[in-house]
Amino acid sequence: MTTLPACPKCHSAYTYQDGALLICPECGHEWTVNDNTPTENANIRDSAGNILQDGDTVTVIKDLKVKGSSSVVKIGTKVKNIRLVEGDHDIDCKIDGFGAMSLKSEFVKKVQE
Predict the structure, then answer these.
(1) Which of 33, 49, 72, 107 is at a distance of 20 to 30 A from 89, taking alpha carbons?
(2) Quick one: pLDDT at residue 57?
(3) What is the pLDDT of residues 28-39, one digit of tens each?
(4) What is residue 112's predicted lDDT score, i.e. its pLDDT?
């Protein structure tokens, strides 16, 4: 049995492999098996040019219509613990009152903590 490396983000020893990815169950960080580098794209930026990372908190900068619904995500809605993904809608998140959703980074602003 091979020993998996510790999480590069939180240094947890409880990592597990899922296909080509290594995943940390404690912080949710994912990275590839082959090169041990993070899978998230370091070039994903918010509307103000701040670099976004997994786990960041952002706010919505304009009212966004929810596709397939008459609901609207209002300006100023705070979204916690985002997850960066590849594609046009590059943020996966859960929004209170709406559930799981994908957002474009151009419509959010990072909350400075």
Answers:
(1) 33
(2) 94
(3) 888 776 644 444
(4) 85
Task: Please state, in angstroms and rounded to a whole number, the distance separating the CA atoms of residues 33 and 35.
Answer: 6
- CATH no., domain 1-37: 2.20.25.10
d(CA 54, CA 92) in angstroms, rounded, equals 10
Q: Which of 47, 33, 28 is nearest to 85 (CA)?
A: 28
Provide the terminal-to-terminal Cα distance of the chain, rounded to the nearest Å: 42
pLDDT value of position 2 = 65
7 contacts 24 by C-beta, under 8 angstroms: yes
Count CB atoms within 10 A of the CB of residue 84: 20
Nearest 5°: the CA angle 72, 86, 58 is 45
